[in-house]
Amino acid sequence: MATTAELFEEPFVADEYIERLVWRTPGGGSRGGPEAFDPKRLLEEFVNHIQELQIMDERIQRKVEKLEQQCQKEAKEFAKKVQELQKSNQVAFQHFQELDEHISYVATKVCHLGDQLEGVNTPRQRAVEAQKLMKYFNEFLDGELKSDVFTNSEKIKEAADIIQKLHLIAQELPFDRFSEVKSKIASKYHDLECQLIQEFTSAQRRGEISRMREVAAVLLHFKGYSHCVDVYIKQCQEGAFLRNDVFEDAAILCQRVNKQVGDIFSNPETVLAKLIQNVFEIKLQSFVKDQLEECRKFDAEQYLKNLYDLYTRTTNLSSKLMEFNLGTDKQTFLSKLIKSIFVSYLENYIEVETGYLKSRSAMILQRYYDSKNHQKRSIGTGGIQDLKERIRQRTNLPLGPSIDTHGETFLSQEVVVNLLQETKQAFERCHRLSDPSDLPRNAFRVFTILVEFLCIEHIDYALETGLAGIPSSDSRNANLYFLDVVQQANTIFHLFDKQFNDHLMPLISSSPKLSECLQKKKEIIEQMEMKLDTGIDRTLNCMIGQMKHILAAEQKKTDFKPEDENNVLIQYTNACVKVCAYVRKQVEKIKNSMDGKNVDTVLMELGVRFHRLIYEHLQQYSYSCMGGMLAICDVAEYRKCAKDFKIPLVLQLFDTLHALCNLLVVAPDNLKQVCSGEQLANLDKNILHSFVQLRADYRSARLARHFS
């Protein structure tokens, strides 16, 4: 049986169990093993093993039955014990209920008895207290204070309580009969009050917070309690303002007091608020007055800088103080304190600001013109000037004598930066110092000053001067500086627009002044663009005039009708070379002076006028066969120059002109074929005829017949 038990392993697997049994049985191995396979012996072993298993099963079964019986017996005993415990618990619960009812009954009796005792004791205590007060009152009547409470300095707290009550009683007594005793009580009341305040002061100097709290609690019922608070506030400030930065000192002082005031007074928020009010109305107001009054009348720039700086630092201090408990509406409280300091300065702030900005801007401009040794000329206004402007816009005629500016544009980025910087600072001060209801109106006033001095007095004046400096279109060797004016005016206006968006828009974005500012800006831009367009147009006319002078001076009739047709050595004429060089220079100047679509617009206009000039110029000559080839070479060079414009229309015009020049050299028999080509088919026949007429051999009957 022991051997059988050894064959069981956890977890039990029947196949493995049989396998282990076979290998332990002699003769149970496979054939060819160390012992021959003996099936009989193996069968006998299996039979014996089965019998052993049956015996083991019977034994285990009996053991299980015995354990089940024992378990059932113990379960019955446990159930019986639980029933007994439940009965005991019910009995105990009933006892607890009875005890609870008895306790409640006793407690009710005790409370009733306590109420009765209190009802008896309270009048008794009041009577005792009244007796004591009468005793102390008699001492004042007799004029001699004998009680220890009045003579012992250590009992000042008890004496204060008594004298405070006697003082209230004395106020109800008739003056004619008790004037003397009332006077004595009042005198003692005042003496004790002074002693308590002195004791509070001494405790504060010693740093004894607990003693300060005790004395403050006693003084709370005295009239001099506010004086105690004043003394505390005064002593807190001793040695607190020793540095140059009064605002930082004030913040540190308030932080320090905020930490201890709750441990001393029963109403700490009121005491702290009173301290802050004292600091604002005395320290800060005095400091602000010293800083501003000195420069208010004589130095507007320094006055505005100081006002902005002081107001900013005061509001920053106010923001720090918002962290403290100052009562229900601390925002309004602090705002009123700030207003009380700066009200006299803020009510006329914008007048000072605009006055300073005007004088400063005028000085910046005058200093610039003085550095150029330029006496600023007056630009007319009113009906005559408006009439001149309309005539100039419609006719493009220079009205009045041309002014030689010697290449000076009278525009300065340094001046512009200075004006914009001054205005930026004015906008910042305006934002900080203006009342919210006045902010859009004040910002608009600053903006109008910027428009007046930057846009009108500087940019517009430069444009007017530049327009007056543009020579007439028939001038020779004219220097064209207006494009420099265009370039600088464009750059300046970008800076102006940036300040408009960055600094003005946030101040007026939600007010009716927004539309007014946008309209004013639009009018200024349109006025500037009108003058720029006029100047550019007249400058282009001058460029074309210069080209005319070059062509008139350099182009000879013999260029296109040489005396010796067989001895022409040049590729293109000298006039063409000089015109192309001049055009390329002007194209580069236009590209450098403008940006965006403006470059293409101006180049297209110049290209069209350039084409018209060359077209009309070619119409003035008669062309031999070799001269026609030279004209084609010239136009090819002009076309190459036109490519620099990078304007498709201009290039197309010169392509067509080049095709027209082919009519000057093509064989008479091929004229009709060339005229019907892709580039010439859509042209008016009169244009084609006009070019054919330029041929030297046009009058021959053969040519006229072919073209008719």
Automatic annotation (TrEMBL):
Membership in a protein family: Belongs to the SEC10 family.
Keywords, sorted A to Z: Coiled coil, Exocytosis, Transport
Lineage of the species this protein comes from: Eukaryota, Metazoa, Chordata, Craniata, Vertebrata
Ranges for domain Exocyst complex component Sec10 N-terminal: 39-147
InterPro entries with a match to the protein in the record: Sec10-like (IPR009976), Sec10_HB (IPR048627), Sec10_N (IPR048625)
Exocyst complex component Sec10-like alpha-helical bundle domain span: 158-707
UniProt-recorded name of the protein: Exocyst complex component 5
Pfam families membership: Sec10_HB, Sec10_N
Entry coiled-coil feature ranges: 50-88
Superkingdom of source: Eukaryota
